[in-house]
Each structure stands twice: as C-alpha cells, then as structure tokens.
Amino acid sequence: MDRISLKEMKLFGYTGCLPEEKKNGQYFYVSIDMFVKFIPGAVSDELSGTVNYAEVYEIAKKIVENSGFDLIEHLAHEIGREVISSYDLVDAVKVTVRKPDAPVDGVFESMETEINIKRREAVIGFGGNIGDRKETIRQAIKAIEDNPAIEVVRISSLYETEPVGYDDQPDFLNGCMAVKTYLSPYELLHELQRIELDLHRERTIKNGPRTIDLDLLLMTGVRLDTEELTIPHPRMYERAFVLVPLREIGMYNGPVPADKDVRLFGSLN
Q1: What pTM, to 2 d.p., does this model score?
Q2: Do 134 and 66 lie in a common domain?
Q3: Which of 18, 53, 119, 202 is most buried (CB neighbours < 10 A)?
C-alpha cells in the first residue's frame, strides 16, 4: 500500500491523568501514517488525488489542544478516527503519540503509544418475527446506513424461516448485509445493540420472539472469543437462515444444512 505521513508534529495539549497536567499542559509529538491502496495524485499531480497535509495537521492540532483526556491512547484513537472519517481515500491510519514530559520518576526519552485504525469488511445478520417484520428490518438497515462510520456494500434478499431453539413463536424474516467500517468490533457491536433498543428489542426468552435481531457475524482479519463477543459467530455455520443469504451476497460458498426450511420472501424494496 502507498503511505502518506506527517512526522513528529509538536503540539501543545492537556491530556494526562493528573490535575496539574490538565491545568498546565505540555507538548506532545504526534506522527500520522495514512495507508492508501493507490494515490491518484501520484499520477495526476492534482491535490484532489491525495490527502491535504495541512488539513490533517489542523485535525491533529485541534484535537490535541482541546483534548483534556486522561490517556494518550485515547488521544491517538480520536486523532485516527477523525482522520480516517475525513478521507475516503485512506484505508488505514497509524497514529503515534509521544509524551516526553510524562510525570514518571525516572530517566526516559518519552512515553509513547501507537494506535492503528483500518477499514474492514464485516457481515451483519438481521432478522425479526414481531410486528411488521419487513418494515422493522428496513428501519434497522436505514439506521446502519445513517452511521457515517459504516458503508453498506451489499444486502441480501429476505428469507422466511422457522424459529430455532424455541418453536412456539411466529416465523422469522432473515437476511445478511456486508458493510465496510472503521469501527472496532466492539464499537460496531454496541452500535447494533443501540439500534436494537431503539427498535424495541427485548431480551426475555432465550431464542424467543423479537422485533429485530442484529448479529455481527464476520469481520475480515478478526477472530475473537470473549464473553461479550465471538467472531466468527459461533453458531452461524449451523444455521441455514444465515448461510443462504450469506451465500447470496458472496460471503460463503460452502454447504448449507437442510434441517430447517428457508423460503425466499423477496427484496426489501
């Protein structure tokens, strides 16, 4: 990948855990590396084909000067998020923040952190079986599309399926969508949970009826197994209602279990 870098910007700010750090401030040294598949300006010699260094400098300067954070890790993260959200050309960004005057009793050159943020492709499964199922799914997808940190790439058709795990409930409408996002897996999970709550999702009976269910199924380059989140989704390869729409959007080409009926319902339109 091509790289555009701003190195060792000396910026004054107020990030630190101690009260005197937030009051008196200190200098930080910030470096930003932006990674791009191809820089059009390298061929065209036009500013519109690259990233404006002066703008990136002002982004970093404004965030450092107005920060007041406790951690330089959070400072670096906020700079990276603002840079990658400002330039569609940038696929990944690395932000390094050095703190030479950290209040530590010892001899050192500086304390330093490095934060990496990149756009990844993720797959979200959606479904519901209460109320106007199609309309609720449409509202959920609209809420995802409205988040500037998420780009919807492909959406499957809707499929009607029998319930799994708790049979005494209506059939579901299910589908999958591929997105690109620079959100972390946990940030994306929390955004999906927020949308579920906005659409009156209630968690009462395990595998029970719900207005909307939004599951983070896959994310490129990510494997997680924690109490809060597992990627890939631990049961997705057992569920035809996930694999059929997943295959439709080109994210799966393996076998599909035939124990449950998956019927094509139609498109969202």
Answers
A1: 0.84
A2: no
A3: 119
